[in-house]
Design a protein that fits this description.
Elements (H helix, E strand, L loop, with lengths): L1 E2 L2 E2 L6 E3 L8 H9 L5 E2 L3 E2 H5 L3 H6 L9 E6 L3 H12 L5 E6 L4 H4 L11 H14 L4 E6 L9 H10 L4 E5 L14 H7 L8 E4 L5 H11 L3 E4 L9 H11 L8 H18 L2 H15 L7 H9 L3 H15 L1
Helix pairs in contact: 1-11, 4-6, 9-10, 11-12, 11-14, 12-13, 13-14
Length: about 325
């Protein structure tokens, strides 16, 4: 797959979706180890960036070992989005990605994220202005439409291509669905097979297993897939998916001891990159998924998620390895 002049894995590219409070440098470090082909930052408010907010500016920081990587921005006003794109470009990402798909209410109420699906002319204007303002490829991530009655992504995809984006990621749900129901990949496949579409089409939504990843490529012809929520507390999913796509073999499930080792590494990396409290809190969302399916685990899981001290976390992880390993 090629995004502008950027070449990504020739066969079966697998990407990490941008996720707020998930795809921070710590998690990106972990999934890179497990073979992800391209990553994105957490989405970053254009207003926060241009005001010089510390949180937004911190999210712009990337590392060379993460490449190829995109910085994702969102907003609802033209000039702040242009200014934010220029500032993001100065941090040397490989692409600038525009978020027109976030379904969170507070984002949508401002007309940003998936809220832009109710104002396609403004979506196109912002995209065109950003494309013209930066020298690196601009990509877009969006959804099928606002609701069941406005699934207009087939038309919007052509319009976005015409204003100059170099790749389009489509989440197979409407904004109204949020994350409920099943992702509908049929429309994603229709867009990919549209002879007018020349840019890469990346499919996103409900890919949780290697088999589902393969089916997405085989059944819908997408240029790449993007995995999001299924990777939380499961960074080795990318290795499993890539291995199956390239060999047809399913890797053995990791042992509890192996998962503990990975969880410890992620916690340690988080502690290296953040203040202690933030590192511990950040890990809770991942810890909640690391050991799914273990019997009689509820009490230990609660302790792991409530621990405020990293030493307690490490001790509980050792206990998990000893008891369930």
């Amino acid at each position: 797959m090629q995004i502008g002049n950027l070449k990504i894995a020739e066969k079966y590219p697998v990407l990490l979706a941008p996720m707020e409070n998930v795809t921070d440098p710590t998690f990106r470090y972990m999934v890179k180890k497990f073979g992800v082909d391209m990553m994105f930052t957490e989405f970053i408010s254009s207003d926060g960036i241009i005001r010089g907010g510390k949180k937004g500016l911190k999210k712009l920081e990337i590392f060379d070992y993460e490449r190829p990587i995109g910085i994702q921005i969102y907003g609802h006003l033209v000039e702040p989005m242009v200014a934010a794109a220029k500032l993001a470009e100065s941090f040397s990402p490989d692409v600038i990605d525009i978020n027109f798909g976030c379904p969170v209410k507070k984002i949508v109420k401002r007309g940003a994220g998936a809220g832009m699906l109710q104002n396609i002319p403004l979506m196109l204007k912002i995209t065109k202005k950003v494309v013209d303002a930066v020298k690196i490829p601009v990509t877009v991530k969006t959804r099928l439409g606002w609701d069941e009655n406005t699934k207009n992504i087939d038309v919007v995809a052509e319009q976005l291509q015409d204003v100059g984006i170099k790749a389009l990621t489509i989440h197979g749900r409407t904004r109204s669905q949020i994350y409920e129901g099943n992702a509908d990949w049929s429309l994603i496949g229709k867009i990919k097979n549209n002879s007018r579409i020349k840019i890469p089409i990346i499919g996103n939504g409900d890919i949780k297993t290697p088999e589902q990843a393969k089916a997405a490529f085989d059944n819908y012809g997408v240029d790449a897939i993007m995995i999001g929520r299924a990777s939380i507390g499961n960074p080795w999913l990318f290795k499993q998916v890539k291995h199956f796509l390239n060999t047809g073999e399913i890797l053995p499930e990791l042992s509890v001891k192996e998962k503990v080792k990975i969880a410890k590494e992620q916690l340690q990396k988080s502690l290296e990159m953040k203040v202690e409290r933030a590192a511990v809190v950040q890990m809770r969302r991942h810890f909640a998924n690391y050991f799914k399916g273990l019997k009689n685990f509820r009490e230990t899981k609660i302790k792991l998620l409530q621990a405020d001290n990293p030493n307690d976390n490490f001790n509980i992880l050792d206990y998990i390895a000893k008891t369930w390993g």
